[in-house]
Amino acid sequence: MNSALFHPSDGRTADVVGYIRVSTENQAEHGLGLSIQQAQIEKFCQKQPQANLTKIYKDAGLSGSTIENRPALLQLLEDAKGGLFKKVIVAKLDRIARDTFYTLWIEKELKKYGVELYSISEPYRWDDPAQKIFLQMISSFAEYEKSRIVERLHSGRKKKLESGEYAGGRPAYGYNAKNGNLAINTKEAEVVQKIRSLRMGRLSYQKIAEHLNLAGVKPKGGTRFYASTIRYILKNTTYKGVIRYGTTAKGLHRHI
Questions:
Q1: How far from 241 is each of 37, 165, 172, 175, 253, CA to CA, in Å?
Q2: What band does 141 get if pLDDT is binned at 50, 70 and 90?
Q3: Domain boundaries, the chain
Q4: How confident is the model at residue 98 (pLDDT cuts 50, 70, 90)?
Q5: Does the 14-141 domain belong in CATH 3.50.50.60?
Q6: pTM assigned to the model
Q7: CB burial string 117-128: b at 16+ within 10 A, e below
Q8: Residue 93 pairs with which residues in a beta bridge?
């Protein structure tokens, strides 16, 4: 966590997202409601000219003691892995997790993907010796907890795969993750069908990529299509109803 959202050396704007959570109605009644958290994040970003707030992930009525059953937080981690944003903003750190182990694990996961975690009310100061020592102390304990979290997440995703549900990872082009399942993204699905049509017309992968780039179409989480992107889309079995997480299974999602 940084003491400032942007460093003086940061010149360009960056995509940032917010995360909000409430576990009970009681929290909403005592100043921790979703709307209040969202307003705090939006107001904060309005004062940061370099911040481009693109999305706020929301978990409502869910405990902060675990992360396995929080779909919005899990999707945030997947999107961070996909490079969709550079910073995550929360009103308070306990919105991420009440347990310090979980908070630290999530922060380390985000860092792995080049994403920073920022708390509006509790900015971490790297130049504070006491905070440095505290962070070093809990880091060793967090490694053990991390292995337990990963094991439980893997088990949960495997069960979802076996039941034909979306088990995680970046959704294939043409789909969005919605309520733990794959939902068709109409605009992207039309592009998938266009790619197939162009390929049937004997255009090469490279020519198809050039055609889409000239038309201003962009891939998920990127700026340009490449021959390899086109090849991957054409060979992706997700469009035929197959889901994958280590192994494959028949999915419940609609085909494209």
A1: 38, 11, 12, 12, 6
A2: low
A3: 14-141, 175-250
A4: confident
A5: no
A6: 0.53
A7: bbbbeeebeeee
A8: none
